[in-house]
Amino acid sequence: MNRVVPHASPGSAVPGSPARPARLAHGRLHLLLTLVSLVVVLVSVNRKAPSAIAYIADNQFLRRAEVGNMVLGLCTVMLYHLVAVHLVHDSRRRRRGAVPVLGILFTTGAYVYALSLGDHEVTNYLHGRFCSDGLPPVCRIVAYHDDVFSDLVYLAGFTLLNVVVMLTQFLFPTERVPRRWDDVLITVNALFIGAGITANLAFEKAGFDPFVVGVTAVLALTLLGFSPRQPVLRYYGAAYTAGLLATMVIKTV
Predict the structure, then answer these.
(1) Is the pLDDT of residue 20 over 70?
(2) What is the pLDDT of residues 190-210, one digit of tens each?
(3) Would you list the domain boundaries of the chain?
(4) C-alpha angle 90-92-98 in degrees, rounded to nearest 5
(5) DSSP H or E stretch at residue 178
(6) From residue 249, how far is each of 240, 243, 252 by CA, in Å?
(7) Distance of alpha carbon 159 from its chain centroid, rounded?
(8) Out of 54, 65, 70, 239, which residue is the most buried by the measure of CB atoms under 10 Å away?
(9) Phi/psi at 63 (nearest 5 deg)?
(10) pLDDT band per the 50, 70, 90 thresholds, residue 1
């Protein structure tokens, strides 16, 4: 008769059977983070593809690039939500009071992030198409929405989403011991995010972005110092540190 071994962790073996250690301790998390990296790649492709400048309707109210960015923004929020839910369910700690607070913060971040995309994508299109040759009053307003206001709102929303994910990992730590391939995959996915940060800081108008990225990096490394084995904190610490260092090197050279 088979005997059930309760709470068998990945890599544990049933007595009497040959040991078959699993290669990954965080397979589902890696899948979600890989999808986040895929979204980062698709954002770059969406911006650079020749078809991005094509209009999506006869009245030419938007281009494919703007619509694509809005869709990919939705994908980003959904994936962050799935990562946060996974972290809560993967932890044995049950901090019931923390879940509603994190949920409110996440919802606020998602709303502000969506608000920024709605404002930026529309005004960026109008700015580039109708206001490149001069700055009448209406164009100054459009340019301010495009370059300043939407950027500030975006930074607030996107940063809040990332902070909520990091706090979720910190408050709901996993007890799974990371294996070598876990570290490899965390690093690879972090480098995709780091590349996106570098592209934004080093090759475009930075604005307040370096300050916000720097504060987020410090928060990630601080939380990582308290919980050095948590994969999501490693992910954020590596991604934001790599992005900042690469930007410094490029700016210096």
Answers:
(1) no
(2) 999 999 999 888 887 777 899
(3) 27-252
(4) 90
(5) none
(6) 14, 10, 5
(7) 9
(8) 239
(9) -100, 170
(10) very low
DSSP letters, 4-66, are --TTPPTT---TTS-----S-S-HHHHHHHHHHHHHHHHHHHHHHSGGGGSBSSTT---BHHH
Give one word for 63, left, alpha or beta, with left for phi > 0 and alpha for psi -120 to 50: beta
Distance CA 110, CA 160 (A): 8
Task: Choose among 12, 13, 61: nearest CA to 176.
Answer: 12
Tell me if residue 96 falls in helix, strand or coil.
Answer: coil
Tokens at 104, concatenated: 């409110």
Q: Are 107 and 63 within 8 A, CB to CB?
A: no
SS3 139: helix
| pTM metric for this prediction | 0.87
Write out the two tokens for 68.
């694509």
Contact status, residue 204 vs residue 247, Cβ threshold 8 Å: no
pLDDT tens digits along 50-65: 889 899 999 999 999 9
Burial code (b: 16+ CB inside 10 Å, e: under 16) for 63-76 equals: bebbbbbbebbebb
Query: Which 3 state secondary structure label does DSSP give 112?
Result: helix
Q: Do residues 226 and 181 make contact, with C-beta atoms less than 8 angstroms apart?
A: no
Which of 78, 239, 66 shows the shortest CA–CA distance to 161?
Answer: 78
Nearest Cα residue to 216 out of 246, 237, 186, 193: 237
Please tell me what DSSP assigns to residue 229: T
Residues 156, 216, 153: CA angle, nearest 5 degrees: 10
